[in-house]
Structure formats: structure tokens, C-alpha cells
Amino acid sequence: MLEDDFTYVIRKAFKGLALAPGEAAQRAGLPENEVLAFSRGHFSADTARRLAPVLGLIPEALANHYDYLPQPLAIPHIHRIDLPFEQERVNAWLVWTGDSSILFDTGYEPQSCAIALDAIGSPALHQVFITHGHVDHIGGIRDFTGREIIPHGAKIEGSEPMQPGDSIRCGSLTIRACDLSGHANPALGYFIDGLAQPILVTGDALFAGSIGGCATPSIYQYALSRMREVLRPLSDNTVLLPGHGPATTLGEERVSNPFLVERSIV
Q: Between 1.20.120.610, 3.40.50.150, 3.90.1170.40, 1.10.260.40, what CATH number should domain 6-67 receive?
């Protein structure tokens, strides 16, 4: 299941562009009631195709979003830790090889991540990395600092500071930070080098089929530019591990994520 359905996608775009549905409808040459119905869950591929350019989104990606789900990924050494977050869910990701055990984010409830790791028989962790400081990603951080593990992150209380471009070696793996600020400021993504496929932990900067919400139009534009700059040089087989929802690949997102267009808004 995706983190965001198509209604969340267009609401994030409306907010990011400070654009009312009525104005968007006028620019797209659509009746306002049609756009309002679409935003409330009445899906129409034709409406999606006509509305998308006004919102700076990929028309075919939005038109196909209703049925989009990335192909299931079975990636050796990568374990999704699906954790409770109030009435929702949040991810932590465990990378577990013969010589290293690395956790990305710690969930919302104080001990839920540690309990989940024990349940799958995870070995003692060597490193913990935090993508950003929102409560659903750092709730369990004290449980790990209590185990004498100092997490790495950007401006996270109790963490070892890490900046974009910094890298840390852990066994056969190298973890390299990049700037994915926008939804949160600051926010780090993490490249994992040393596995069979390139991996990028995106936090809430990018979900399968969507992006994290942004507080203001200027932050929205900055988030898109940061995300596109980070993703542009990467290969299609890069695996993306988001803060919510399923793992995906950059190749799938380049086709199916409406926000990955790189052109001016109509």
C-alpha cells in the first residue's frame, strides 16, 4: 500500500504552489466541480492528465497513480521494520550483513523498534543513522543511546553530527550522507555502498509515488530541487528506502512518481 493516494499527491501540489482548486481548474480548462470531485477521491484519468501540467506533475504518472504499486523487492541484507505511529505506520530499515548491522531511523514509540529487532533476531547494532528529527522517526532513539550506540544525524539531539558528503565505513559497507532537506530541515538521505544494488535511504523526502509534505511554497520548491539534484545522476536500479510505505526503485519512480518531472510549470 502506498503512503499517499492520488488525492494526497494533488493536495501537496496545490499547497506547494499556493494554488486553489478553482484557479487550477481554470488554467486546465476544466470545470471547478470536476477538479473538486477529483481532489475528494473521484478518480478520472482524463482529469489527471489535464490537471497535471498545471501542477507541475507528470501527466501519465498521475493518470496511472490510482493503480500504482511498485514491484515487490526482495533485497538480500535489507529488512523493513514496519512500526506503529499513532493510527499510521512508519518505517525503520535494517541493513544486516555478515560484518555489519546498521539501522536507519528508530520509529515513534520508545521501544517498538528495539522489540521488532529482537523479534527478527537482529545482532547487536554497529551504527544507527537518523534521516530527520520528526517524532515518528526518533521516538526510539533513547533506547539505542542507552545501549551505548551514538546515532548519526543532522541536528538531532543526542546524535553525532553528520553533514552532506560525510561518509562512515562499517564493515564492508560505506554510508554516505546527502542533503534531502525540504519536508524537514535539515534532513539527510543515506547512500549505502557495498551491496549488490545501489541503495538510497530517502526518509520522508520521497515515497513510492509521492513526496513528503512541505510547509510553504518556497520550501516545496526547495525540496523538489534538492530531491531532483540528488536523484539525477543515479541509475534506474537504485533501490529507494522511504520513511513510509514500500521500498521502490528509481526506475519505477521516474515513470510513476508524478513529482519527478523536470520542466517548468504551465
A: 1.10.260.40
